[in-house]
Amino acid sequence: MTRRALLIGAQTYDLTGVAEDVTVMERLLTDRGFTDLRVCREPGETGYHGMDEALTRLAQETRTGDAVVVYYSGHGALIPLPGALRECHPGRPAYLQYLVPSDHEAGTATDFRGYLAEELTAALRRLTAATPNVTCILDCCHSGGMVRSPGEWRIKSVRCDVPVEAGVARSVALATPARPADPDVVRLVACQRLGVAYENERQGLFTAALARVLEDFRNRPVPWSVLITRIRDRVRLSEALQRPDAGGPSGRLPFSLDAPPQPERLPLRAHGGELRVRGGALFGLRALDRVRLVFPADGTRPGSEAEAQVTAVDATDALLDPPPEASASPLPSGSYAVPVRVHTRSHVRIDVGGPLADALRGRLASSPRLVEADGGSDILGLVRARGGRFEVADRKGLAYRRPEYMPGLAEPPSSAVRKIVELLETISRGERLRGLADPGPDGCAAEDLRARMEVETTPDSLDFREFRPGDVLRTGDRYRISVAGRTRTPLYVWLLGVGLSGRTSLVTHDQPSGIAMEPDTGHDGGFGDRPGPVEVRWRSGPVEVWWPQDVPAVGSRPESVLLLVGDRQLDLSALGGAARHHRSEPAALSALLDEVCEGVRDSRLSITAKELRYRVFDWHTTVEPPSS
């Protein structure tokens, strides 16, 4: 196995810190065993063709089992299309998004010198065809036309003064029919697609924070999903309006395929003596529930833990009775809450005896979301023995998993119980998400908010009809979700699914903190310069329904699709569990870098930011088993 990295630093226009960004990343990756480092920092290497050739060579030379990093520092551009081009390509998003090579200004109407999001998509797909261990890191901004930030920070965005006709034509040509989203690329990003990233005179803010956090945790097995919270905290200290995030399989350890088990981490916020679990209502918390608070070591303060009780729910936030350890504000970087006991615990019936039954009862007694019950119609799962193995069945008597995926009767009770409880907790999470209630029009400040689910009429036709209540889906069917409304402030969306296996997935896992709905405002693309509400919209690409191989192909199974629309960004990756949809694809240009390299890019949330206001749209159906 070889550890390979391609580091591209395009120091264009007024940037001054790109060279240092690349040097820092080169040193960081060398220290972590990367032996094949390809550094592109000279103008001839960072032009459009140089970038393309470097990515092509990297894919050609990558082998099975390799670990690969693609890093870019420089300008990014998000260019509104001229009206004439929008008329030529109706139905397409209003922006062209790309990385800015060093020969960008040499572009003409027939030779566009911008490295398009779709081109990066294809390049990373070629890499994951050879190895699933791919990490893409972007330290750039993608909101063209923004003004400079006051103070020492320089914005990493650039206005486009070159013709874009050829770029649009190339983008259209690359927008092939929807394909599966690449599930293997970890995406580490500096900011929101419609937001900004910054550098000072020395280097990029995101790269500096990334390097520092990786150095702090170099000897500890901490996944990206945890490290990114520390990176955000470091960026927040700069006062720059920038919010980094991690998308894709961010539960992995850095530059690895290993994904250690993690507790159900819920975000904490402290302000003015008040302690909140951000989005606690979405995570199933109510008054009188209890959580365990985890405070990592911070400077001179050692790490500590404490329990707290939920006193009330304010919109989506769960308010806590703060213990003395949480009286200080701000909280130590990386603090979080773990549910200990919640109000709604799923009922489990145990229909086995012996040591396993005793061990299972012990685990259920300590589970925050499961409890033993004798019977009744609200049973989540029945644990029984069948054919030499343990089985967990639903209230209809259908097994949740095939026998070969369940522990055998001869397996040690501790091991068998762990696997059984993990399955029950997965199914419980799905049932909790299915019951997520819509707070109604008062939940989100938007006018005429409407959502629609459509199902493809024939395979791969891209011809969709509206989903109707009572419709049944089959393996291989594809659906898509759209939403539109009018608002005076930005809105964000999350698409979640509860599959027929009981697993939950954040379909929009590339942007776990929410995808910004596109404002339909001609060329300005903003909100603050208009007195009235702005029409905004979003549409997913096709999402395929599939029958997991570990689920018995017997009986129809429930499938649910949920769309959340909120008025601010919030990391909801904990709602999605560890699962993902088999196939999903963002619309061709609506998210652009989302699928392969972008997680969430948005402005920093003030510590005094109000709670998330949201709406929920849901569609519930059943999926027929595949024919034999």
From TrEMBL:
<dbReference type="InterPro" id="IPR029030">
    <property type="entry name" value="Caspase-like_dom_sf"/>
</dbReference>
<dbReference type="InterPro" id="IPR011600">
    <property type="entry name" value="Pept_C14_caspase"/>
</dbReference>
<protein>
    <recommendedName>
        <fullName>Peptidase C14 caspase domain-containing protein</fullName>
    </recommendedName>
</protein>
<dbReference type="InterPro" id="IPR050452">
    <property type="entry name" value="Metacaspase"/>
</dbReference>
<dbReference type="Pfam" id="PF00656">
    <property type="entry name" value="Peptidase_C14"/>
</dbReference>
<feature type="domain" description="Peptidase C14 caspase">
    <location>
        <begin position="3"/>
        <end position="242"/>
    </location>
</feature>
